[in-house]
Amino acid sequence: MHDDLIARARTWLAEDPDQETREELAQLIDAGDVEELSARFSGTLQFGTAGLRGELGAGPMRMNRSVVIRAAAGLAAYLKKNGTPHGDGAAGLVVIGYDARHKSADFARDTAAVMTGAGLRAAVLPRPLPTPVLAYAIRHLGAVAGVEVTASHNPPRDNGYKVYLGDGSQIVPPADAEIAAEIDAIASLHDVPRPDAGWETLDDAVLDAYLARTDAVLAEGSPRTARTVYTAMHGVGKDVLLAAFARAGFPEPVLVAEQADPDPDFPTVAFPNPEEPGAMDLAFARARASEPDLVIANDPDADRCAVAVRDGGDWRMLRGDEVGALLGAHLVRRGARGTFAESIVSSSLLGRIAGKAGLPYEETLTGFKWIARVDGLRYGYEEALGYCVDPEGVRDKDGITAALLITELASVLKEEGRTLLDLLDDLAVEHGLHATDQLSVRVQDLSLIADAMRRLREQPPTELAGLPVTRAEDLTRGTDTLPPTDGLRYTLDGARVIVRPSGTEPKLKCYLEVVVPVAGHAGLPAARTRATELLAAVKRDLAAAAGI
């Protein structure tokens, strides 16, 4: 076992094109560090519908240039096997974007070299830019595919590889499995041609086109008065968001200076995710000093948008479901037509809003790879701060255009002497108070997640928080409207619970929603108290049932 492990590590070392990871791996081999080598060579990072994501380092279970070159070669083989969408025999174009994380630029260049060596055309965005700019560029340039090198809001030690096809949407089955099979078929990196040149580095024309497209997000002549504090969370959003806000005529956002510029070490936050405790502390401090109308945060690749508002004496983050409902209600008020869509883990309030407006509504599996594929999509969101407000421009979540739209809504309300919280109150009175929460458990041992799912399948709860479970669904079997997925859904009398393993992190995630009827505005405080009590009880009973 030991000799075989060392032999596999030496074979990998001989092919590794990166001086940094070569030295790292050589030190592990020389030290005979069996535990660390076993962790890195226990398998390979699996390519799936989220592409690749993992910790940086040497070996097949880490993100590194060797793994990325194999992934790019597998994608190239898949694209060539499936032909070009135009049928003209021309070499298909692959557009490549990247964020400012460690190794992102290297991974982007390697991808361009592999595509060029495979006989495809490759074009790399001019510098680290938001993921939605890449998603836009795919359709704008008529590409057959796109790649974004990013780990989104993961910790600093991680990086990732997200793949889009020519429709501008992220891959879904069976494309993920077919690409994975092509990756597995690569025997050696020496078999992958990687020329030193031959691809194009794009200029700012594609970014200018994206910014011009943001005009479509806002209503002509709408108020543009709301003042914002903005944090880029050490990511790549600042310059593009400032340009979009200037173009729209909003007041220039006040920046959280400590987090404004890209920094792959994310020094001011434990996790560069606006949802994580403490991540918004600096933004709130800036807001207390400058008294804006709202606080806006992007995650590091700027495809997500977080919103915070003054609530009583201080600032608080709005939940993704609250922002999702606000944007949906705003678009309805503006006369939007088309289908409203959300993932099954998001609040059912959007369905009530769409239904009352006579608009089509669909639920999808988790992820914008599914939401973006809804026929006739006009607006889509999911609770993890992702909003697609301009599907004709970007068929993915876009934290820049979502920031524009929520600031327009805040401006409209400001002109009426109202706030986002006032509109949320109105929605609660009109449709019932929809309160959501999450039970999320991060694990070191993935078997704990499998054990919890098995326990719930073998002994599904019959009631939670005293509410009877009226329907229990194992989503691995699929439903009339959803393809199979590893998840469980419980419908209760006045509540809903969904349990699923995270697709991108070692977490078991449980999504809770309760709906409390409200007779009028005077009944809101009592309804909120009741909702808080119910959510706490559901969380407690579900944790006990799952053994977590």
Search tags:
6-stranded antiparallel beta sheet, single chain, 20% strand, alpha/beta, 21 strands
Strand order of the largest sheet: 1-5-4-2-3-6
Describe the global form: globular
Q: Which percent band covers the strand fraction?
A: 15-25%
- Which class of secondary structure composition applies to the elements? alpha/beta
**Stretches with pLDDT under 50, minimum 5 residues:** none
Radius of gyration: 24 Å
Quantity of strands, as a count: 21
Largest sheet: number of strands, sense, barrel closure: 6 strands, mixed
**What is the residue-mean pLDDT, rounded to a whole number?**
95
Topology readout:
Layout: H1 2-15, H2 19-31, H3 34-40, E1 52-55, H4 65-81, E2 93-98, H5 104-117, E3 121-124, H6 131-140, E4 145-149, E5 158-165, H7 175-184, E6 200-201, H8 205-213, E7 228-231, H9 238-248, E8 254-255, H10 281-290, E9 294-298, E10 305-311, E11 314-317, H11 320-333, E12 339-343, H12 349-356, E13 361-364, H13 368-371, E14 377-382, E15 386-388, H14 399-415, H15 420-431, E16 433-442, H16 447-458, E17 463-464, E18 467-474, E19 488-492, E20 495-501, E21 507-516, H17 524-546
Parallel strand pairs: 2-3, 2-4, 3-6, 7-8, 7-9, 12-13, 12-14
Antiparallel strand pairs: 1-5, 4-5, 9-10, 10-11, 14-15, 16-21, 17-18, 18-19, 19-20, 20-21
Helix pairs in contact: 1-2, 4-5, 4-7, 6-8, 9-14, 11-12, 11-14, 11-15
Explain how this protein is built:
The protein is α/β, with parallel strands linked by helices and 548 residues long. It has helices at residues 2-15, 19-31, 34-40, 65-81, 104-117, 131-140, 175-184, 205-213, 238-248, 281-290, 320-333, 349-356, 368-371, 399-415, 420-431, 447-458, 524-546; strands at 52-55, 93-98, 121-124, 145-149, 158-165, 200-201, 228-231, 254-255, 294-298, 305-311, 314-317, 339-343, 361-364, 377-382, 386-388, 433-442, 463-464, 467-474, 488-492, 495-501, 507-516. The strands form 4 sheets. It has a 6-stranded mixed sheet with strand order 1-5-4-2-3-6, with helices on both faces. It has a 6-stranded antiparallel sheet with strand order 16-21-20-19-18-17. A hairpin with an 8-residue loop joins β4 and β5 (158-165). The two termini are 35 Å apart.
